[in-house]
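User: Hey, quick favor. My workstation is busy. Could you predict this chain's structure for me?
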Amino acid sequence: MLLEKKNAVIYGAGGAIGGAVARAFAREGARVFLTGRRLASVEVVAREILDAGGVAETAQVDALDELAIEQHLSTVTEKAGSIDISINTISLPLQRIQGMPLLEQSAENFAFPITTLTQTHFLTARAAARHMLEKGSGVILTLTATPSRNPVPGLGHMATTWAAIEALTRSFAAELGPQGIRVICLRSNALPETTVIRESYERGARLTGQTREEFQARAESMTLLRRLPTLAEVANVAAFMASDQASAMTATVANLSCGSLVD
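Assistant: No problem, here it is.
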């Protein structure tokens, strides 16, 4: 198993991506510590992992609350002995990321995702790194999306956010690499299995007079693989990147675009 004897903290574990990553980590042998602002959805994921024979614990943690993050990680370290992996999969309310031209956005709406998502990634990565320094090893994973490189009308505020997170990833990697800590970003294309993308495609379909299936098919046709990634694929790559099999990789972005971006 790729992550045997590893302790992994997952922020936003009750969401679609966080839950998929949690299940993949547990399947690969990690002891997973699942967090979220609402315990109900996180506990559903934990129960699935426990029923499958994995090891999972839950905690209610606001990933924008510096003190709550620090207290939780201290508890995890005391209980498990170390923090080997940290991944932030926090998402935003759909109404705050729905497409709107930059010319029509208020300064507040433009700044909201930039402030919120960069801050939570900074706080969780910094806190995890401070604990990882004690062991001299660890992996921190961040999450972005293809508009960071491939601009999409109506997503200017999100594109700016994701680009900032990728820059933050590289900066953390530069500072933490000499201490044995790797920092890697996962950049995914749209994930049709998630509520955000389903609703976004439904909205786009209505505006263009198409069905959701037709709208999605157009997005798929713009990739080299003629399809979009799955949650399982993102989770599997996360598990690989967090494992010792990827020990030479840091300060990079894993391209999960199915070929809509070519590096």
